[in-house]
Design brief:
This protein has 735 residues and is mostly helical. Helix content is 78%, strand content 0%. The protein is built from 29 helices and no strands. Helix 21 crosses helix 25 and helix 23 packs parallel to helix 28. The longest helix is centred in the first third of the chain and has 31 residues. It is globular and about 75 Å long.
Length: 735
């Protein structure tokens, strides 16, 4: 049986094309390639999509979002538990959606729509089973619902042969086990820390971990066989294996860290600790020498880091004198730095040996084609092959280094406070107490970040974060005011410090974090200042103006990024490109949690208007930028720029995060970045969950809103098919 669609039929460019275009952007920065030629290379490689490529991207994405929205709406509709409707009518409504999705799958079997419809049908069965238990009150436990759901998902996954359905099956199976375990006297989490056990719970835990490991081994064996023989197959995708590995290591790390914390107790799982060590050693051998995968190695190093920190803390658990506490912090910071340096060293060596997900033959073929087209010369191709390893870090490695840098920075700050405490400088803190030591940390961090050695550079990131936090904390110690003015003054003080540190620290990861925080605090300071000095209407308009100006500036940088990379501010382009939207994401989350934060953190500060002001500012910025680009004849997304800005802006007026998330999905395609696409999708899911949780409407209104949104998205699919041209001789979709 032929599979419905290949796993990557989202219209995204290949990894090879994405990698090559990152390298050509580096040539623009060095001045050996003009921005105009680089733009032509982007268009040739599919990084800058044509109207046809936009169609290939938008149809599956909108279909997936629309169908998932309909399914979520049906779940809310069932949860509403309407009493006036007969039970047979309830079943008819729940089953009607499943039948309609099944018809779509049968009618459009080889199209991209069928894959999303089959996934939505599998999820809809969960709502049907929940409705059955709700109506008949069978007395069954929750885990039995998930068990029945799993029995439906597994056949669908076997038929569809797609990772999304297999992931849902794996997730539902784990939820069923966890819910089943809550019916036992001891839960899975308590099993690792409680003092009394029976043979059955211990055997269940060992069997569960063994089953997770067996599923991972089978999935990896199939994946590497597919990579070797059928690299275009859905099995060759790596994300599902990495999720399974991360979950297994999370459980093992929790248990091993619990064993170390309970060193003197009787509650030990020595065999699981041995299994964890064997797992790390086997993973190191396989993914370092046999099947190179830096993401798997990163997960292993993260587990080793956590266990190592737990061991260091346990060794000095009963030491309360200053010297031992200082030694504990220093050892933990050193351990974090060493593990980060190991990851950077592995990344450099693995890139030099051409990892399997960046097929050298395809890269050579693509560069030869570009040379024949007159877009690249032989010297430029040689320059591309001389990789800049520092700027070619994958997103997961940057995330791991950033998290490690933050933890190390907190440890460094605690050590600094400990030193100040021993010197009796904390009795009467003043500006010099934290600011002067933080300035010294900043000088050291700048020197470390300038070093080409991996270890020093990674350590410099932690020192730079610690210096920034120390400077801001030192300034805040001098502020004595009420809640409202404290929020405003603290935000205003953070803005110049973050701006100065972003300019001073020569590191792209640090600058990204600084720009993110700078965007967040700039809007927050403007909101607080407007509330104190302006009327409610004028203050809201002022915040809208600030957000709109930031959005317009961000989109201007996006549209001129290649020219900016050829200028004197090339190092600031990447942090601004991704730091500004990250700051807007934080503002969106702050808006939906405003009531919660007002009650527990800022008792007198009113943040409830921040969401509406942020949404209006995002909408205004998107529309104004689209109109400006249309007037200049250089639209960002070709003919869909203005309609997309109007749609995303209209959504942002009601839900800023949803409108921003939809625009970021379009930006991910424009940038040709699969990592940005994953981040945008994750942000959308998290925001929608939080937004609906705090949305003060009934479940019926929520369900209807989701259903209407799903229908609108499916209607946009029809509009895309009518407006954008279909590929000539493209994928075969039965009409």
């Amino acid at each position: 049986m032929r599979e419905i669609a290949p796993e990557g039929i989202t219209g995204m460019p290949s990894r090879t094309a994405e990698y090559l275009c990152r390298q050509t952007a580096r040539l623009v920065k060095r001045g050996s390639l003009t921005p105009e030629t680089c733009q032509r290379i982007y268009a040739f490689c599919g990084i800058r999509p044509s109207d046809t490529q936009w169609r290939q991207f938008l149809i599956p994405v909108l279909c997936c979002l629309g169908l998932l929205s309909l399914v979520a709406g049906s779940v809310f509709f069932i949860a509403w538990n309407w009493a006036w409707l007969p039970k047979m009518a309830k079943f008819a409504l729940a089953e009607l959606l499943i039948v309609a999705l099944a018809v779509v799958v049968w009618w459009r079997w080889y199209s991209t729509l069928a894959r999303s419809a089959l996934l939505a049908a599998g999820l809809s069965f969960g709502a049907l089973f929940a409705l059955y238990g709700q109506i008949y009150q069978t007395g069954a436990d929750s885990w039995e619902l998930f068990r029945a759901w799993l029995c439906v998902l597994l056949p669908l996954a076997l038929i569809a042969r797609q990772n999304s359905l297999w992931f849902c099956s794996w997730l539902v199976a784990n939820l069923a086990f966890q819910l089943y375990y809550t019916t036992m006297p001891t839960s899975l989490l308590d099993l690792a820390v409680s003092d009394s056990f029976t043979r059955l719970p211990s055997a269940v835990l060992h069997g569960y971990l063994a089953l997770l490991a067996a599923c991972l081994i089978i999935r990896e064996a199939l994946a590497w066989r597919a990579i070797t023989h059928h690299p275009e197959s859905w099995l060759a995708s790596r994300w599902f294996s990495r999720v399974m590995t991360g979950f297994l290591l999370l459980l093992l790390t929790t248990i091993v860290a619990g064993n170390i914390s309970d060193w003197d107790g009787n509650n030990h799982f020595t065999d699981i600790t041995v299994g964890w060590a064997i797992t790390l050693l086997a993973g190191y051998y396989l993914y370092r020498y046999r099947y190179q995968d830096l993401c798997m190695l990163t997960l292993g190093i993260a587990s080793l880091t956590v266990v190592g920190c737990a061991l260091i803390m346990r060794l000095f658990l009963y030491a309360y004198d200053t010297g031992d506490l200082f030694l504990t912090g220093a050892l933990m910071a050193f351990w974090l730095a060493v593990n980060g340096s190991i990851l950077l060293k592995w990344q450099r060596k693995m890139v030099e040996k051409e990892p399997i997900d960046r097929v050298p033959a395809r890269l050579t073929l693509l560069t030869d084609t570009l040379r024949q087209q007159g877009l690249l010369s032989a010297s430029q191709i040689e320059e591309i092959q001389q990789r800049d390893l520092a700027s070619d870090l994958p997103s997961y490695l940057r995330l791991a280094l950033s998290v490690g840098g933050w933890i190390a920075a907190i440890i460094i700050l605690l050590l600094l406070i400990l030193l100040l405490y021993t010197a009796d400088l904390l009795d009467q803190p003043n500006a010099a107490t934290l600011i002067l030591p933080s300035l010294l940390l900043a000088v050291i961090a700048r020197g470390l970040l300038r070093s080409p050695r991996d270890g020093k550079h990674h350590l410099g990131l932690a020192w730079a974060i610690a210096a920034t936090c120390g400077l801001i904390s030192g300034v805040l110690l001098q502020i004595h005011s009420n809640d409202v003015s404290f929020l405003m003054l603290s935000s205003l003080c953070a803005v110049p410090i973050l701006a100065a540190m972003a300019v001073a620290m020569p590191d792209r990861t640090y600058r990204f974090m600084a720009i993110t925080a700078l965007t967040f605090f700039l809007v927050l300071a403007g909101h607080s200042l407007a509330r104190l000095s302006l009327s409610p209407t004028a203050g809201r308009l002022a915040v809208c103006g600030v957000v709109a100006a930031i959005t317009c500036w961000w989109l201007w940088i996006v549209s001129h990024q290649l020219r900016l990379q050829a200028g004197p501010y090339a190092d600031a382009v990447h942090p601004l490109l991704y730091g500004i939207p990250a700051g807007l994401m934080l503002l969106s989350f702050l808006g939906i949690n405003a009531a919660y934060l007002t009650d527990f953190i800022w008792s007198t500060a009113q943040l409830t208007t921040l969401q509406s002001a942020t949404g209006t500012g995002i909408a205004a910025g998107l529309v104004l930028s689209a109109l400006s680009q249309k007037r200049n004849g250089q639209p960002l997304f070709s003919i869909i720029t203005l309609p997309a800005a109007l749609i995303c802006g209209a959504v942002a007026l009601y839900a800023p995060g949803i409108g921003l998330g939809l625009w970021l999905i379009l930006m991910a395609r424009y940038q040709g970045s699969q990592g940005l696409l994953v981040v945008s999708g994750g942000f959308m899911v998290l925001y929608v969950i939080g937004w609906y949780y705090f949305l003060a409407v009934t479940l019926l209104q929520k369900s209807l809103l989701l259903m209407v949104g799903g229908l609108v998205l499916l209607g946009l699919v029809w509009g895309v098919k009518k407006v954008l041209p279909a590929p000539i001789g493209g994928a075969s979709e039965n009409a």
